[in-house]
């Protein structure tokens, strides 16, 4: 008969600490992770605990190691997603005021372009953005670029005005002949 495999990698002091922390905890995910650590500490196989937690044995093992290293704080979810914005709320308010009032940082009236706004942000706050990123920031704040209405180079405003005012004959739906198929 072979010797008994050591299934638990949790010592008794870690198990006691996990059980005490579990009793004082309010967060669900962290509580479930502590339960997994307690189960492993009670000599439950990693595969069984992982199956119960609907995760992999490597994840459960990672929870145990993180808990040993730093306690409950390391069992919480790590930050995910976006980096912290380089333009904070005060800077955002200043830039928004520039755009709304149509003034530059010196207070002079200006027609904003992406390049001009990018350069003003860099000069004022020391934050360097590309043109595309400035455009994306403005879009996320609810701004849209001014786009001129398309006009043909040979268009005549007088001809357009005269065309709109004169009634056209024979354009009614009843008067237009339809082709038979």
Description:
Helix 2 (28-41) packs across helix 4 (57-70). This protein has 181 residues and is mainly alpha-helical. It contains eight helices and no strands. It has helices at residues 12-23, 28-41, 46-53, 57-70, 89-101, 114-125, 131-140, 157-165. The radius of gyration is 34 Å and the shape is elongated. The longest helix has 14 residues, at 28-41. Among the domains are: 12-75; 89-140, no CATH class.
Largest sheet: none
Structural class: mainly alpha
Order of helices and strands: HHHHHHHH
Q: How much is the average pLDDT?
A: 85
Helical segment tally?
A: 8
Radius of gyration: 34 Å
Number of strands: 0
Which consecutive residue ranges, at least 5 long each, have pLDDT under 50?
none
In percent, how much strand structure appears in the residues?
Answer: under 5%
**Amino-to-carboxy terminus distance:** 92 Å
General shape: elongated
The percentage helix is 40-55%
List descriptors.
single chain; 181 residues; mainly alpha; 8 helices; 0% strand; elongated
């Amino acid at each position: 008969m072979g010797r008994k495999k050591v299934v638990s990698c949790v010592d008794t002091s870690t198990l006691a600490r996990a059980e005490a922390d579990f009793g004082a905890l309010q967060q669900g995910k962290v509580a479930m992770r502590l339960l997994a650590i307690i189960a492993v500490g009670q000599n439950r196989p990693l595969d069984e605990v992982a199956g119960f937690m609907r995760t992999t044995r490597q994840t459960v093992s990672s929870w145990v190691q993180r808990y040993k290293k730093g306690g409950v704080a390391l069992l919480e979810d790590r930050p995910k997603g976006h980096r912290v914005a380089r333009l904070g709320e005060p800077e955002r308010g200043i830039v928004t005021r520039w755009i709304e009032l149509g003034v530059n940082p010196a207070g002079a009236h200006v027609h904003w372009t992406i390049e001009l706004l990018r350069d003003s942000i860099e000069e004022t706050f020391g934050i360097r953005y590309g043109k595309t990123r400035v455009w994306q920031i403005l879009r996320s704040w609810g701004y849209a670029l001014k786009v001129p209405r398309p006009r043909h180079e040979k268009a005549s405003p007088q001809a357009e005005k005269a065309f709109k005012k004169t009634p056209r004959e024979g354009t009614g739906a009843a008067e237009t002949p339809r082709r038979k198929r």
